[in-house]
Amino acid sequence: MNEILGIIIAAIVCWLNFVIIDTFMGLPEQPGVIGAKNIGEDVKNRNGDIAGGYFQGNILCSPDASAGTLIASIGYLVLGIPGGIIAAFLVFIGNRLCADPGYAGTIGSLTMTVILFIASFVGITPEMFIVGMIIAILTIQGIDQPGASRVLGRIAKIFNRHAEE
């Protein structure tokens, strides 16, 4: 497969994987770990959405599905399916170290391992998913944080997971 096309597809798949899982697991509803509330409120003060800000704060302060997706891609690159499973275990440990009671990161790692296995049959490599995940994280955290928070807030409303204001 063409590398550029593979990276674009991988970025879309990674973005969907971690945003859907993290939203479903309730990251936009409230700050789950220390620091996420400050980030959410700061994003809201810059004309962002509070639910999107909480989402961004939660993924920054604890290994949620975004980290799980990236780490699973790296683990799969190194060891194949066992690497993805080891990544899920490491993310689980990271959640406990951050006093995060959730399982979004672990689920994200496991779903990404399955996605990587399926994608290997169409020529999308783990390297493409690693680059794709970096791009996906950039769209949520790095390019326009208040704008991304508004998109995340709309997605949270669709999932009925929007923060109570």
What does this structure look like?
This protein is mainly α. The protein has one domain. Helices cover 75% and strands 0% of the residues. The chain contains eight helices and no strands. It has helices at 3-24, 36-45, 50-61, 65-79, 81-97, 104-119, 126-142, 145-158. α3 (50-61) crosses α8 (145-158), α4 packs antiparallel against α5 and α5 (81-97) packs antiparallel against α6 (104-119). The radius of gyration is 15 Å and the shape is globular. The N and C termini lie far apart (46 Å).
Overall number of domains: 1
The major β-sheet equals:
none
Q: Distance between the terminal alpha carbons, to the nearest Å? A: 46 Å
Which runs of at least 5 residues are low in confidence (pLDDT < 50)? none
Structural class: mainly alpha
Number of continuous helical runs:
8
Strand segment count? 0
Keywords:
165 residues; mainly alpha
What is the fold's blueprint, element by element?
Blueprint lengths: L2 H22 L11 H10 L4 H12 L3 H15 L1 H17 L6 H16 L6 H17 L2 H14 L7
Keywords: Membrane, Transmembrane, Transmembrane helix
Explain briefly what this protein structure is.
With 165 residues, this protein is mainly alpha-helical. The protein contains eight helices and no strands. It has helices spanning 3-24, 36-45, 50-61, 65-79, 81-97, 104-119, 126-142, 145-158.
